[in-house]
Design a protein that fits this description.
The chain folds into 4 domains: 107 residues, Signal recognition particle alu RNA binding heterodimer, srp9/1; 177 residues, P-loop containing nucleotide triphosphate hydrolases (Rossmann fold), CATH 3.40.50.300; 71 residues, Helicase, Ruva Protein, domain 3, CATH 1.10.8.60; 186 residues, Up-down Bundle (Methane Monooxygenase Hydroxylase, Chain G, domain 1), CATH 1.20.58.760. The two termini are 59 Å apart. Helix content is 49%, strand content 12%. By secondary structure, it is an alpha/beta fold. Strand 3 and strand 4 form a beta hairpin. It binds adenosine-5'-triphosphate. Adenosine-5'-triphosphate binds next to helix 7, helix 12 and helix 14.
Length: 611
């Protein structure tokens, strides 16, 4: 059984109590109205008249009121209900009244007001129960919709953190990330034998910032540290701290640290720390009081650690650049552990860890899959393995084979295949377009090998030309970038050459080509005429759009020079690609015909055309 426990108050009892009160009120209300006859206020003399004329079946005395129930005559009993005639009793008592009633054999009842008190109380409370219930449940559902934010203060306080007494995760469960493991080993040792470090008077970092893109295993690594050290793991997400009500976040921080200290040695893990630890004074609009109070409380708690308290705070973010400098000061999160996107070896190791949980066919080569998934995060690789297993299960296969993995990879990369079928004419255009990309890629010395071409629409793409790098590239040459621009323009140029018209399908290609050219000129200093200048063009502001966040740090004149240079690069590439395709028109035609007929070509089929 997992040692995971969610700490929250018992709300079920309140819900049952509320439902019980409603049921009680409704039933007593219905019970009353169901039997009740219509009441009619009349003069006392009219009641006496009715008694005398034998129209009354029973008389009830209640406090200072007389109520006479009309007798039902058999003729109209089906159509009309009798009334209860009500009148106040006169101040002067009628001495003959009782005799008169008794002599006519009319039933006499006396009612005490108290009998109905409960029913009345419940009925008068019914609307209040509804109103309070409505506010309670709507505030709860609002709370949920807002991702745990907001809780009316009168409802008391909720501790929104999770405690895992033992995570059962070790460093072996985290593939790759060797540097991070080495860095974190020291923390594990400290948590295992804090007294040893304390005796030495050594000051260990109390806060470690785990930095890396989403899905790179930061949470997993934090759990592994707790698992290796065998200490409890307190976790929560930064965004969960932020409450609609100022002060709740700070009080949660106090509770969290208090509990962690009680269970020390322990680890506190704060995911998405950037949502509270963002530099103060950024973002649009006001209302940052809550965030700042929460942040200040975290800082105060971390400053308040005494030497004997072995609590380590790990925090994860994929935006270290936006963090408030107060967070990264010595004594706080002064250590950074980087969790980067995995390189090919680590990808294979991650695939292996997750593939262990499914029956993998012998023909599957995880290293090949690792090679064909550059840029995938650990979470995406885990997802790929799961998608492959789902596909195999849907096909009722006993094992997960290479085809399942390849399909799963395309799905994770580009989305599900689309159902709709293209017309023959549109299919032809897509086949020509994709062949254009492929021919330029195949014939360019600086490009990655083309491993697959398909015109089966997936996600938002109508077709896809897959290139698999021989190795992970961390540094790109100018020749490589110029080749990339050429490959991107290849689709549009092939349409022009073979179809004689052009389509909107190239829009994304053109955007990407322009972006590369712009980066080459303004960021990478790769344009001879523009020179060795870098303007950090792509560094958009984290919360505001680039346009409104900051003015360009160059003049109008420079902006024009950049534009001119970008145009000249793209123009040169256009001519280059057109010449290349014209020279290889027959290959382009052959490839697009094959692609049109087969819809997908793998690397062997492509190789047959290009020897
Ligand atoms: P986020 O920044 O989105 O919170 P994260 O960096 O914390 O993401 P995790 O939540 O730890 O990433 O990763 C998601 C899942 O991906 C993990 O539960 C794990 O199964 C898998 N995963 C990620 N990296 C690795 C790895 N290096 N080895 C094994 N599994 C991994």
């Amino acid at each position: 059984m997992s040692a995971k426990e969610k700490i929250k108050p018992n709300k079920t009892l309140a819900l049952w109590l509320f439902l019980f009160l409603i049921a009680l009120s409704v039933s007593s209300y219905l019970g009353k109205t169901g039997q009740e006859l219509k009441e009619k206020k009349v003069a006392y003399s009219e009641i006496i008249k009715a008694i005398e004329s034998g129209q009354v079946s029973s008389v009830t005395f209640k406090e200072k009121v007389i109520m006479a129930q009309e007798r039902v005559s058999s003729a109209d009993s089906e159509n009309s209900k009798p009334f209860i005639l009500i009148s106040p009793l006169p101040q002067i008592e009628n001495p003959n009244l009782l005799n008169m009633i008794q002599s006519r054999g009319i039933e006499i009842k006396a009612k005490n007001e108290e009998n109905e008190t409960w029913t009345r109380v419940l009925i008068s409370f019914l609307p209040w129960i509804f109103i309070i219930g409505f506010f309670y449940f709507s505030s709860r559902s609002l709370n949920k919709k807002m991702g745990g934010m907001g809780r009316p203060p009168f409802m008391g306080e909720d501790k929104k953190f999770e405690l895992e007494k033992s995570t059962n995760v070790t460093f072996d469960d985290v593939a790759g990330s060797q540097n991070a493991k080495t860095d974190l080993h020291e923390i594990v040792d400290f948590l295992k034998t804090p007294e040893h470090f304390n005796e030495m008077g050594a000051q260990l970092p109390r806060g470690v910032l785990m930095v890396g893109p989403p899905g790179t295993g930061k949470t997993l690594m934090a759990k592994a540290v707790a698992g290796e050290a065998g200490v409890p793991f307190f976790s929560l997400s930064g965004s969960e701290f932020i409450e609609l009500y100022v002060g709740m976040g700070a009080s949660r921080v106090r509770k969290l640290f208090k509990e962690a200290k009680e269970k020390a040695p322990s680890i506190i893990f704060i995911d998405e720390i950037d949502s509270i630890g963002r530099s103060r004074g950024t973002g649009l609009g006001g209302g940052h009081d809550e965030r700042e109070q929460t942040l200040n409380q975290i800082l105060a708690e971390m400053d308040g650690f005494s030497t004997g308290e072995s609590v380590v705070v790990l925090a994860a973010t994929n935006r270290p650049d936006v963090l408030d400098s107060a967070l990264t000061r010595p004594g706080r999160f002064d250590r950074q552990v980087v969790m980067d996107l995995p390189m090919v070896k680590s990808r294979a190791a991650i695939l292996e860890i997750h593939a262990k949980k499914i029956p993998v066919d012998k023909n599957v080569n995880l290293e090949d899959i690792a090679k064909s998934t550059p840029g995938f995060s650990g979470a995406e690789l885990k997802n790929l393995v799961n998608e492959a297993a789902l596909l195999a299960a849907r096909e009722k296969q006993k094992t997960v084979n290479a085809h399942h993995f390849s399909e799963a990879r395309d799905k994770v990369l580009m989305g599900n295949p689309r159902d709709e079928h293209l017309s023959q004419e549109q299919k032809r255009v897509v086949a020509v377009h994709e062949s254009g990309h492929a021919v330029v890629a195949i014939l360019s010395p600086h490009s990655n090998p083309v491993t697959k071409i398909t015109i089966i629409p997936r996600g938002r793409a109508l077709g896809f030309t897959e290139q698999t790098p021989k190795e992970d590239q961390v540094n790109h040459s100018k020749s490589y970038l110029l080749t990339q621009i050429a490959i991107l323009l290849g689709g549009r140029m092939a349409e022009r050459l073979l179809i004689g018209d052009i389509t909107t399908g190239a829009q994304d290609d053109l955007k990407r080509a322009t972006k590369i050219a712009r980066n080459m000129v303004a960021n990478f200093g790769m344009s001879d005429s523009f020179g060795l200048t870098s303007y950090d063009l792509d560094n958009t502001h984290p919360f505001l759009g680039k346009e409104i966040s900051r003015p360009n740090d160059f003049s109008e004149e420079t902006a024009k020079k950049i534009d001119d240079e970008v145009h000249s690069i793209l123009k040169e590439r256009e001519t280059f690609v057109m010449n290349l395709l014209e020279e290889n028109k027959s290959k382009l035609e052959e490839l697009s015909d094959k692609l049109f007929n087969s819809e997908t070509l793998d690397k062997e089929e492509i190789a047959k055309i290009f020897n």
